[in-house]
Write a structure and sequence with these properties.
It is a single chain. This protein has about 450 residues and is of the alpha/beta class. The protein is about 35% helix and about 20% strand. The chain contains 14 helices and 21 strands. The strands form six sheets. Strands 2-1-3-4-5-6 form a six-stranded parallel sheet, with helices on both faces. Strands 17-18-19-21-20 form a five-stranded mixed barrel. A three-stranded parallel sheet has the order 7-10-13, with helices on both faces. Helix 9 runs parallel beside helix 11 and helix 12 runs parallel beside helix 13. The longest helix has 26 residues. The chain is globular and about 65 Å long. The termini are far apart. The C terminus is likely disordered. The structure holds S-adenosylmethionine and FE3-S4 cluster (F3S). S-adenosylmethionine binds next to strand 15.
Length: about 450
Amino acid sequence: MSGKFFIKTFGCQMNEYDSDKMADVLHDTRGLSQTESIEEADLVIFNTCSVREKAQEKVFSDLGRVREMKLANPDLMIAVGGCVASQEGERIIARAPYVDVVFGPQTLHRLPGLLEKRRLFGRPQVDISFPEIEKFDHLPPPSVKGATAFVSIMEGCSKYCSFCVVPYTRGEEVSRGFEDVLIEISDLADQGVREVTLLGQNVNAYQGKTEDGDIADFAMLLEYVSDIAGIERIRFTTSHPKEFTQRLIDCYARLPKVVSHLHLPVQSGSDRILAAMKRGYTVLEYKSIVRRLRKARPDLSLSTDLIIGFPGESQADFDATLTLIDEVGFDASFSFIYSPRPGTPAAGLADDTPKAVKLERLQEVQARIEAHALAISQAMVGTRQDILIEGPARKDPDELCGRTENNRVVNFAIGDDPSLVPGRIVEVEITRAYPHSLRGRIADFATEKGAI
Ligand code: SAM
Ligand code: F3S
């Protein structure tokens, strides 16, 4: 098959990463090129998410639409990957027989072979197995697009929170080899990457085999990544409060390249709900992690995930979540209403909170966190922040944009310094806070040449 492929990605950063890998593998092994337009594609791939019902259903409505395209062009190939594929497998073909290939998050490197088999044998191919981390040995070297890059360090999840499908769709936790990760990051640094985001469902469960047969934990990995020349900033997502060890907290005191921003999902501020969710920590334990982290890194900004309306969530449980939001001062959140997922233990729990109440609670949580975020942005006005330049500003290409350590986009005038190029970290004075971005001016430029 020659031609173009189109990928639609649903869900989390892990899926974004996997979609990039699918693109790399199709390009390298089959010479296919990616298109942003579904109409001109010879192969349409849906990289799906099944964390909430809405995302799952969206895939089937999108599939209905490509079916029309396939009726008009029978040569069009359709592939479904990701977590819905992993969970539904053959059932996808039963429901949508025009789908050609179904593959899971751990078999994406086999996509070219599956497409070939589809062509040779004339019937749909399904491979949703979990060959232990084999995919990393079969992927082409990462292609670099700018100064930032994602690097997967572990896959899967063994926590089995009572509400979550991920352990069933992505399999148990498996870590990539220690040197394997470090070599990939050094290669990226050689190609101009300055900021890496280490990816995994629970990065702090990392247990990477070293070449001499030892096991490296996540704190050790951070230490070694910090030593890689060229890498200036290290982010990671997601980490789990249960394994947030003192060794890891100490990294915030020792390793300045680890940014002053952490995404640490808490899910609820009520111990009763946390226990029902099988999260493995209490609110006090979560707050103790935050207190020790802020002792090590006083300006640390924190974002989180919250599930609103878990079965049995009372008004008192919800109020406890609001209290925790204020105590920690979360800067951002992914908050969603609980969605029962078939096959998970929580799906069988009695749930008598009306939908309207859940919606009200969600809005209250989101408004509360947005207020915190705006207050934090406003407090940044007048401060100097290190910004990693990412490229031209979205709204005005004569300006540049970049991100602060706490993940805010800052737009600023270029001035007349030719060294201001993507990948450079510059000090910018924040001059104005908007709800979703900041405005600034190059700090030295401002001092030397007066206000812009
Ligand atoms: N590993 C992460 C952690 O420490 O919790 C979470 C990864 S999970 C795929 C991403 C987020 O999806 C969770 O933090 C949770 O808030 C949300 N989520 C998972 N299952 C959900 C469900 N059944 N309903 C609503 N939200 C859900
Ligand atoms: Fe899901 Fe809990 Fe793992 S939210 S990804 S089972 S830590």
